[in-house]
């Protein structure tokens, strides 16, 4: 059984830079929002490949002494999102293996939907697995591939897997970047002083001052070695299915992906909300930080004043443990506080990016009422999430999704809001300019572009959102 | 010589709650923005007092096991701001001592200006000092006081010191809160289920769901023991001198202090800027997070569109160490990134709360220009800082203050801005409603309300601001 | 290439005890002398298998919280000896894998001589390796085995490997112990309140108060499951080749193995030395701790007084780092000190268990001379080590063995001893009662009972002995 | 109240060596047996004094990076013995303070008997105490001294305290060593390449290859500064009272102190036992390590064969925590194991250095009987301990001393021994050559040479011995 079907991660690769591991470290730091569970870097000096991984934030896992162990001009890195339980370090990436053709390291963002099936087939032939993550089947398929070159082996392996992957692979001397034919997850290419950089988001390029060249195409494999950069399209062409949640929640607002800046897409969705689902309110207040940009769009379009009436404590750290207390559950109060003076007596339009379970949202409504809000109108900058994602987003089981089990009015009552409206799928796709041709909407409408081969897992995991994270 | 004259800190005290240390822990967590160098809690179960201190964030210093050592219904805590060097743990607070009248623990926010002089006198009589911080003289003066009661000893000691202090003191059975006659630093009183809470800011009350009663008055000593709450005014009455920087930068926007919400004061200053120092710009862009609220005020008042064109990476942690790199200095890029699409081709009014050295501000201007800004107009939501603070803010030496060494035009040229304007002292005080009667303006105009008795220290310290912290 | 051909380790297994992991922990603690590099425990509650490994001593790797994660009545554990370099945690054991038949954990003491060859064959068929240690080939062979039962798969796998192994294997519900046909390394079976215990040495049984049942036989596989204990002999019968170095140095003196107590064997060798290589000396002084028992035998037999003239500092810890010093190399002085009053003016017979490189021995001779010894006569309780071991002892390359590169007189001169004699191989085997029929003597005479299939590795490792460890 | 009246510690001081802190570190390492609770070093480069202390073994507290912070040619260090509870780090030494004359650091071995009284007097005058250890009064007395020079201030302070002290004191430029008039604790002086070394035991000189010059005399103060070494005798002359327990248990056998090697004294006591309290036994077996040398003396003198029938596990570490177990209490088995083959059927004379509570000794007798001993005859190499020590040894309250509450026959019965005999006080003093003129015997006969001024403390502490430590 695969414990960790669902995860959202960040990947970075650097080819031919004297400080490759340092650049990967900085890149992972810029991608920290994509995963905080573990961080790892593999580096090669052409003669030897070395791996360092650890649990926690990039800055906690790596110090200068540890980075100094990662010598060589070639490196890849990975941030992993934190899910519950199970032998975590074993699942940290990059995963590094030795096989007949030498050493190989892999960093994978996305989720395969036939990994369990392939795994069973491989195991039937005597293959051994170290981790419980789906990425390991890719290296097994490469080890068993009949093809001879690195690219061909990778293509042969990737043709056998279904689902979402944006990945970087390295041997001791070559770097390879690949994106699944649907292009669920982002991946981009950049250049820095003759070195090549691959990363999940363009904010990496900005930080290290690399030049952004272009996005890796859906279905493209890019090989970077001493021959330069080569591009391959070894897969059958299919319709693009970018993950719209990258815009809604995951990606940094300063990143450019799927042909647009996240900030722009997010703000446009806010404006669209003001058109489609206006609110009769005195103030627009975002749930920080994920609701801020769309709230700004909503406020601008509606003309309702914008106020940061909910203040976020940015010192919330991984290590904070709420003390065993008889008093009360502090919950969302540890992260957010409402400013009474702003809220009291007002009709508040609260803007959040999405609702998953609804538990946190309910607490926020209560917090606003406790601060004296006269009315609380929830406006959600995405459609209701009614279905689990199997392409790399860690949604809970459907029965835990409030929009799956409750209709709009039931949800509103559960949340104790005076009104509740979601941006419609149609409007969202319109805002994204014929978005229906380009984006996956499975979590909203259940139209899964890639069939789920594996038995649907029991995703009794801590879900990713539903908490203001 | 006193190494650490200047620091900004947070204090919390709890009287008569079964989970006093847990509440102090939560309170320190809410006050984390006031100091990240060290955290400490002293607790008493009436029979014994115990102290736990450590370097780092509250959540890193304390785990449940360590909190369990801090038993009893009485506790105080302290967060300290990070300055450079020197035996740091020795200077962490609360400081706990044993003297003839028993055990005593002290947590102090503020800075004394005659500590060095008193220290030399006490040492001449054989007193021994453990730390290099100014707070230690207070406990020495209490140990040598002739008076008999706790309050009288505290008053006798505090009458001998000059400068800024908002402090909490505890014996094994009593809690005392005191604020200097000028009231430089904030301090407030609250109540929770029969227990009393004292804290630097009201955000503590919000988090632990205590009822905010009132601010401790300048010059007031509050004693809390089994007789209830008693108030004393043992000092000569003087004009109030609240620190306006609490509004400008330090305090959390959701805190209420000096009679107003920080958020409101900050936004009003933004509006005032739009009136006094408007900008001919296409966009208002704040330097996050400290410039956001005043930028919103500026945008509203001026009608210029507001955009979050600079995105902050909130995963910047204490432990991040920039790798030894031949490449470049990443500096401010690790914290901020400009969104090209928003900035490019625009005339940007950049709003920041203040300028200290100017080095960071200069990098931000450069970042905006690199992102394609057509013009960069700096609008600063406070007057030029021309003088060091000796009352608890860790400003650098005057010669390192850009506004001390450069006039407005020189500063603008140094920062490479197209225009630069500061909110005037007069306008700021007007916004604060006769603020000149209530606020200290020493850092702007050099009018020090309390004479500096000690030799002016060589404050070759890492300054607090000047970096977007 | 296999980096870590050579290692000496300790293994423990427990079947059907409610505190299996706790017992394994105590057992590893009793076997700490067999390996200090890493420690690990795998446990199963029949439904799930969990692994915890770490670098360092058992007591440093495990605390009660970590042990609590290791639930279930079935557990195995492993201590590994510290060698230099290379991704150490990856090589720590037990190794736990998932394959078609489920989960499997392995702890291995010994060294395989055809692991590299098998590894290359497996890799050729697409197998992936995580570690660089030889034990991993065993689990690969089990994963690819055609047989169906656990024992048959294990036998099929073990029939393909050559060399030394005493190992414990577990599935989620069964425990298996196996010893190679030559029986190089020890392994014993015990019983505690209905539970079964397998361990490298009997000192484990003594500590946990288990009843020692018998040694596992060379070539025997023992399966323990809900059917009880079953014994299998699936290998071709060969002459036993116990490692005599277990008596000379490795095993604890209070352990019983290869049919005798280590203490007794060691003392008998000391007596034999007094007969074969007497010394004209005033005092017998052991190199503590490994030379103490044989020195007692030597003293008793020769009638020469016995004195602990060299005192050992038992606080030498793993973490001690000699400070970067311009002064001198402290070397052996950190561990041993000579008592001048005892040594001065005396003719000393120094008894040590063996000589490997000779560097430490030379420093001890110098230390005794500095303390005033009139004469220093070295008597070594084993024959000259002239050949590398490939069956689990981490000897250096032959060219680093002093007895390989120097004859007796040259060695004596190098060590600056007045005389030097080794116990002869013949005498040693005589003391061990027809030992030549039962013991491996390859390191003394080069007669390797199992041919070395793999290319002889470049064992540029830190050797195990040659330092008083 | 003083919590920690009793402790045994090690001190080191180095004057004028470029690597002073490194040498102190090595010295503390050689003295690790004298205290394992905490370790600390203060160093001065003449301009600044810096202190580093931590809980645990020297090698765990200090790594090269931390030693590098301790610059300068002058340093002192301290190891402290582990007692239970109470804010330990606060009590770690050296203690470093600032007073009128500058900085001062102190490391103290011994115990003062009027510290509480002085402390109360000082507190009455307003003095503040940081720690609960008695050493702090010495620095207070120095701070309040009227004299002007360092030596005179030290003498003035030390004349006011009673009890045991061997101490090193340093200013930024001078080193001072002092020993109380009775000379309870050892202290010696050495020289290394022009630098001077002061240490508790001579084993420090051996390790760092310093030349041992002489012991510091009882009542002597030695000042070392740029004028060289000066000696002062500022105290009234009294009869010497060396602590005989340094020979019996504390000091390393390779150290020379009180005019003799510990090894020699210990062995002579063993011989004397064979004369005074022989045993009708087949074997002499020591309780390792503290009973080994006297057992050798006993065996030699009696002619009874000597065997190491009890084997000690030297990997017992500070961090080992016995797992929460329903099974049994492992207790002494974690440290010792009996070899059945040696013990079974024999009449064993067991030699231990002393008996305190008797609980451990009782377990050892049981362990020997479980191993098959026919008879167990206890022979103790010191007289019965009937009284608490107040001069630096952490004995428990009298009522916990088995020899205080039980007569010889009752003790024997409690221990389940076939016979029990202690070396008599008279015989011990005879062995020590008119020892009664030179040694304190208070713990045996209650003749306290220095009256205990303080209220006798409630020493409900974990006692030091009584466990084979």
Keywords:
homotetramer; 469 residues; alpha+beta; Glutamine Phosphoribosylpyrophosphate, subunit 1, domain 1; Rossmann fold; 2 domains; 7-stranded antiparallel beta sheet; 6-stranded antiparallel beta sheet; 23 strands; 28% helix; 23% strand; globular
Would you summarize the structure shown here?
The structure is a homotetramer of 469-residue chains. By secondary structure, chain A is of the alpha+beta class. Chain A has helices spanning 20-30, 58-61, 64-68, 88-91, 115-124, 136-144, 150-159, 203-208, 245-250, 262-276, 292-302, 340-343, 359-370, 402-405, 408-415, 425-431, 442-445, and strands at residues 9-15, 38-44, 49-55, 74-80, 95-99, 102-109, 166-170, 175-179, 188-192, 195-199, 211-215, 221-225, 228-232, 242-243, 256-257, 260-261, 283-286, 310-312, 336-338, 347-352, 375-380, 419-422, 439-440.
Percent of residues in beta strands of chain A: 15-25%
Largest sheet of chain A: 7 strands, antiparallel
How are strands sequenced across the largest beta sheet of chain A? 3-2-4-1-10-9-11
CATH homologous superfamily title of the largest domain in chain A:
Aminohydrolase, N-terminal nucleophile (Ntn) domain
Number of helices of chain A: 17
Give the oligomer, counting copies of the same chain as homo and different chains as hetero: homotetramer
Q: What does this entry look like structurally?
A:
The structure is a homotetramer of 469-residue chains. Chain A is an alpha+beta fold and 469 residues long. The first copy, chain A, has two domains: 9-238, Glutamine Phosphoribosylpyrophosphate, subunit 1, domain 1, CATH 3.60.20.10; 261-316 and 330-433, Rossmann fold. Helices cover 28% and strands 23% of the residues of chain A. Chain A contains 17 helices and 23 strands. Chain A has helices at 20-30, 58-61, 64-68, 88-91, 115-124, 136-144, 150-159, 203-208, 245-250, 262-276, 292-302, 340-343, 359-370, 402-405, 408-415, 425-431, 442-445; strands spanning 9-15, 38-44, 49-55, 74-80, 95-99, 102-109, 166-170, 175-179, 188-192, 195-199, 211-215, 221-225, 228-232, 242-243, 256-257, 260-261, 283-286, 310-312, 336-338, 347-352, 375-380, 419-422, 439-440. Chain A has a seven-stranded antiparallel β-sheet with strand order 3-2-4-1-10-9-11. Chain A has a six-stranded antiparallel β-sheet with strand order 5-6-7-8-12-13, covered by helices on one side. In chain A, strands 17-20-21-22 form a four-stranded parallel β-sheet, sandwiched between helices. In chain A, helix 6 crosses helix 7 (150-159) and helix 10 (262-276) crosses helix 11. Chain A is globular and about 70 Å long. Residues 1-6 and 457-469 of chain A have low confidence and may be disordered. Chains in contact: A-B, A-C, B-D, C-D. The B-D interface holds B 50-51, 87, 90, 97-100, 120, 123-130, 132, 139-140, 143-145 and D 50-51, 87, 90, 97-100, 120, 123-130, 132, 139-140, 143-145.
């Amino acid at each position: 059984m695969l414990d960790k079907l669902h995860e959202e991660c960040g990947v970075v690769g650097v080819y031919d830079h004297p400080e490759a591991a340092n650049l990967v470290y900085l890149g992972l730091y810029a991608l920290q929002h994509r995963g905080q569970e573990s961080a790892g870097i593999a580096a090669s000096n052409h003669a030897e490949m070395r791996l360092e991984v650890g649990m926690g934030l990039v800055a906690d896992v790596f110090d200068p002494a540890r980075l100094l162990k990662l010598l060589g001009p070639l490196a890849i890195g990975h941030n992993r999102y934190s899910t519950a339980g199970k032998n975590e370090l074993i699942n940290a990436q990059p995963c590094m293996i030795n096989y007949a053709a030498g050493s190989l390291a892999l960093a994978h963002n996305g989720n395969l939907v036939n990994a369990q099936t392939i795994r069973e087939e491989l195991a039937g032939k005597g293959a051994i697995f170290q981790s419980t993550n789906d990425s390991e089947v890719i290296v097994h398929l490469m080890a068993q591939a009949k093809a001879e070159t690195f690219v061909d082996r990778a293509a042969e392996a990737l043709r056998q897997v279904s689902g979402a992957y944006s990945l970087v692979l390295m041997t001791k001397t070559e770097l390879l970047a690949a994106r699944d034919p649907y292009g669920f997850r982002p991946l981009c290419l950049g250049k820095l002083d003759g070195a090549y950089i691959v990363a999940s988001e363009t904010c990496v390029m900005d930080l290290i001052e690399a030049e952004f060249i272009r996005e890796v195409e859906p279905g493209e494999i890019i090989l970077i070695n001493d021959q330069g950069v080569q591009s391959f399209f070894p897969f059958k062409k299919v319709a693009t299915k970018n993950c719209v949640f990258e815009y809604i929640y995951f990606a940094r607002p300063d990143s450019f992906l799927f042909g647009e800046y996240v900030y722009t897409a997010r703000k446009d969705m806010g404006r669209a909300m003001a058109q489609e689902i206006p609110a009769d309110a005195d103030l627009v207040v975002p749930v920080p930080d994920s609701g801020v940009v769309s709230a700004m769009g909503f406020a601008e379009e509606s003309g309702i004043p914008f106020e940061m009436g909910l203040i976020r404590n940015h010192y919330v750290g991984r290590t904070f443990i709420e003390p065993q207390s008889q008093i009360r559950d502090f919950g969302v109060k540890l992260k957010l506080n409402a400013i009474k003076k702003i809220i009291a007596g007002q009709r508040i339009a609260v803007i959040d990016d999405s609702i998953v379970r609804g538990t946190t949202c309910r607490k926020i409504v209560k917090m606003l009422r406790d601060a004296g809000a006269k009315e609380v109108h929830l406006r959600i900058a995405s459609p209701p999430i009614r279905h689990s994602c199997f392409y790399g987003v860690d949604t809970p089981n459907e029965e835990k999704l409030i929009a799956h089990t409750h209709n709009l009015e039931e949800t509103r009552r559960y949340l104790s809001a005076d009104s509740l409206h979601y941006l419609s799928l149609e409007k969202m796709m319109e805002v994204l300019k014929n978005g229906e041709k380009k984006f996956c909407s499975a979590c909203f409408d259940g139209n899964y572009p890639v069939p789920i081969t594996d038995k649907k897992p029991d995703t009794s995991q801590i879900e990713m959102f539903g908490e203001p994270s």
